[in-house]
Amino acid sequence: MPDLFTPLSLGDYTLKNRVVMAPLSRSRANSNGVPQPISAQYYRQRASAGLIIAEATATSPTGRGWINGPGIYTREQIAGWQQISEEVHRDEGVIFVQLWHMGAAVHPDFLGGNKPVSASQITLEGTLPTPIGRDRPFKQARSLSKTEIRKIIAEFAQAVKNAIAAGLDGIELHAANSFLIDQFTRDGSNLRTDEYGGSIDNRLRFLSEVTDAVCDAIGSGKVGIRLSPSNEIWQVKDSQYRDTYARAVELLNPLDLAYLHLLEPRPDSGHDIQTIDYQTPDLRQIYNGILISNGGHSAASAKQMILNGGSDAVSFGKPFIANPDLVERFRHGWPLNIGNRSTYYTNGPEGYIDYPTFTAEASSPV
Ligand SMILES: Cc1cc2nc3c(=O)[nH]c(=O)nc-3n(C[C@H](O)[C@H](O)[C@H](O)COP(=O)(O)O)c2cc1C
After folding, report:
1. How far apart are CA 95 and CA 36, in angstroms?
2. Which of 19, 20, 25, 228 to mutate to test the pocket of ligand 1 (most atoms within 8 A of CB)?
3. Which of 68, 273, 318, 352 for mutating ligand 1's site (highest number of atoms within 8 Å of CB)?
């Protein structure tokens, strides 16, 4: 029976264990989206993960709306990623990068005052920080033309080639959490009447075309995808999300992707654990490939999940922020550090590269 430390064959790779680092935006790139040397150090510290999925990274300027979030479309950004992949490979880590276009979640402050783009003319409910202010309310997006859709898909295809050129091992498509791909998928945000809107298959057309394009560009063994069926961030809803995501998974099956990564709402994020509508058990039945589950796991729940066949691997977000040696801590049953939320998104080393390993902690003088 596999456990957390059993190797796993995933796409083109064999992972040394099943403890995956979930993508974590940490806002440590520079204002042009160039990853800095500090991020190479941060990721190398975590190279004992079976797989690192690096933070959400923009495929084009129109999709980048996260303050100090990285991109992978300029020469400088690609060089920044190259440093990260080299450092992680020094310790024999495997690293994919998550790719996103934020769609309607890009504030015009990032776009020289221009409107963001999305499936339809929608306004997300919420705020994000921008270079102008901390809580900037989203503005109305405009609907993409079909020519523009083709351009965005081509940008994804170029971005995955850039990722491989930078020495990264693969990519994860961010089709979760209400960003552009999700905005196309859900009927609350996709109001189109052309072949990209209406029926479930039409709404999934964008996801399918992006996935096909990136698989054609680098091969499906280097491509994973992340979905979050029951998350409704910023009121991006789908009236029949069970059916929509069941169909999405059916459509992904023949592509033979490296993995499917499912994010469930987090018990600690204001959701009542009793009312979370967990989708992973049903989607596990539908999906033929490697499944990574995520959301509020401990070592014990992850072990149970893998032992019961609920997923093949488990990813951890917050635990990896505060525990660079999370795998060793799990292996030995050592206690975990708790991360400091106030430094999740601050620019600089504090709360980023200064969390100690357990052995460093144990040997430091009291
Ligand atoms: C600081 C922070 C940044 C995050 N950034 C991303 C991201 O870039 N992409 C993404 O898909 N999820 C992101 N997430 C969600 C995590 O990947 C993960 O799904 C979530 O933390 C739940 O897992 P956990 O309970 O193990 O922390 C982020 C979460 C946190 C706390």
Report:
1. 17
2. 25
3. 318
Length of the chain: 366
Residues 325/307, Cβ–Cβ less than 8 Å = no
> With a 6 A CB cut-off, is 22 part of the ligand 1 pocket?
yes
Report how many helices (DSSP H) and strands (DSSP E) the chain contains, helices first.
12, 14
CA distance 116 to 102: 9
Beta strands at 223-227 and 259-263: parallel, antiparallel or unpaired: parallel
d(CA 240, CA 85): 40
Q: How many beta carbons lie within 10 A of that of residue 12, not counting itself?
A: 15
Domain ranges of the chain: 8-363
Q: From the CB of residue 358, how many other CB atoms can be counted at a distance below 10 Å?
A: 18
Give distance in angstroms: CA of 58 to centre of ligand 1. Answer: 16
Query: pLDDT tens-digit profile of 186-196?
Result: 999 999 999 99
Q: How sure is the predictor about 277, in pLDDT bands with cuts at 50, 70 and 90?
A: confident
Place of tokens 């029976």: 1
- Which tokens hold the place of 323? 């525990």
| Max intra-chain CA distance, the chain | 67
Q: How far apart are CA 200 and CA 244, in angstroms?
A: 6
Structure confidence by residue, pLDDT tens digits, 96-134: 999 999 999 999 999 999 999 999 999 999 999 999 999
- The candidate with the shortest Cα–Cα distance to 103, out of 23, 202, 210, 180, is 180
Topology of 8-363 in CATH?
TIM Barrel (3.20.20)
CA distance 327 to 306: 15
